[in-house]
Amino acid sequence: MRSALPLFLSLSITACMDPGRGAGDSVPSTDDSVGTDDTGTAKPEVCGYMPMPDLDASTDVVEVNLTASALEWDPGTGVPLTGGMAFNDSVPGPVLEANLGDTVRVHFTNDLDFETSLHWHGLRVTPEMDGIMQTMGDPVEPGETFDYEFTLQDAGFYWFHTHMDTATTIEAGLYAPIIVHAPGEVAPDCDQPMVLDDILLEEDTLQIAPPDTDMMQLMGRLGNVLMVNGRSDHSYGWTKGQTTLWRFVNASNARYWDLYLEGHQLTVVGTDGGFLAEPYTVDNLVISPGERYLVVVQATGEPGQSYRLMNKRFQLHEEGGDMVEPDPVGNGDNPVATVVYGGGETAGTGWTQPTPDVPSWGAPVENLGHHWLLDEDMMGGSVTIDGATWPDVPMVDVAMNVDTMFEVENASEMHHPFHIHGNRFQVVDVGGELPANAVGWKDTFDIPPRTTVTLVSALDNPGEWMYHCHILEHGDDGMAGLMTVEE
């Protein structure tokens, strides 16, 4: 039986600066230098991120080279993963950064030894750019290239990842963030993507464990090492008074993260599809696989203090149900990163909220596009949509540019993160009640056990679109279907 591995919390010396394309000047550093101090102790990291180099000098075109390849990378255990993979030799891959309205060209090279494709999670691209074989055609073969090109219709925080054999390839490291800046967006003191992931390692070798059980396929794969931005040992340097924007994305196979920062509150200013009109403050934040949240934190600590970003145990199955999945990191709270306050104090820039693009329906939407039924067959070892698995799930046909309601009923005793490609949605009802928090655009949302969630959409992006559970083992096992938005 695998036991939980220790979480390594030594300070990292990695640092990168953000040139702030479209968002003002570079992200300010919270420490003027990186490396080690006089005692040899590693210093906290400088805030920021390094976007992929733009090969096009035009102000409205972002052109980048992207390569997927095998890479031995260290998740913070001190032992590189011989089965690791990466985009541009980095885990997570480098940030794809652009402005609303830009044209993006990605020259993708597959240096893996198997075919693959890329999905631009949350972006409203055209169907042939979406990374599913039904609309893209042939996948990208080993040694071959493919040019992805699309125009950015929505500002916000997104991510890209492989869309073939996702449970294996995303676990190995093939994922990266996307930042699309809104017009007039002003950079905070610290703008930091926070890619959440967990990885399951064999206890003796510290290598990626094989998906060796049918139960893992049914329950989802939970890891025994928790990581932020590809490592379990990140430490970020802050200065009292600064404003930090954390851009969270959950890239885990199955883990729901329930985060809190010791001694601080979290103000949620955006969700999957951009900024909110009414931010809200929480002590802890639950993020399901595939979801994104934009969170502002005011630095109120004193020089020399440190605080841990913690993750609480989240039970995937309903309380009192027949199933309780074991968590390899245990049932307590676990640290995933550290915030360290340096000397001095800054006045800070505060937070300038960009003008939100939020959904608005003046009247109830009565047109029902579809009622999905999610269920599981414990005896048969499968998870289903509308009583079937891919490719036998019936096609859903809906009309374009018609305000449409959808219902997603979860008849199982397990949470399912539901992701719909190609169009954006608003969650208007959860189990007969209004959503607890502010209105925003979503493309991935939790469907709690024994609960029906109601969505509405304008369905303004035509084409054939996949929908699926974003527990990666479930999606790979056939908990997926197709919806045609007809012009």
Brief account:
With 487 residues, this protein is mostly beta strands. It has four helices and 29 strands. The longest helix has 7 residues, at 166-172.
Break the fold down into its secondary structure elements and pairings.
Layout: E1 61-70, E2 85-87, E3 96-99, E4 103-110, E5 118-121, H1 133-136, E6 145-151, E7 156-162, H2 166-172, E8 175-181, E9 190-199, H3 214-219, E10 225-228, E11 235-240, E12 243-250, E13 257-261, E14 266-271, E15 274-282, E16 285-287, E17 292-298, E18 306-311, E19 334-345, E20 368-377, E21 382-385, E22 396-399, E23 404-410, E24 416-420, E25 426-430, E26 444-447, E27 451-457, E28 463-469, H4 472-476, E29 480-486
Parallel strand pairs: 1-4, 3-8, 9-12, 11-19, 20-23, 22-29
Antiparallel strand pairs: 1-2, 4-6, 5-7, 7-8, 9-10, 12-17, 13-16, 13-18, 14-15, 14-17, 18-19, 20-21, 23-27, 24-26, 24-28, 25-27, 28-29
How would you characterize this protein structure?
The protein is mainly beta and 487 residues long. The chain folds into two domains: 285 residues, Sandwich (Immunoglobulin-like), CATH 2.60.40; 119 residues, Cupredoxins -  blue copper proteins (Immunoglobulin-like). 5% of the residues lie in helices and 38% in strands. The protein is built from four helices and 29 strands. A six-stranded mixed sheet has the order 10-9-12-17-14-15, with no helix packed on it. A five-stranded mixed sheet has the order 11-19-18-13-16, with no helix packed on it. A five-stranded mixed sheet has the order 21-20-23-27-25, with no helix packed on it. The longest helix has 7 residues. 49% of the residues are buried.
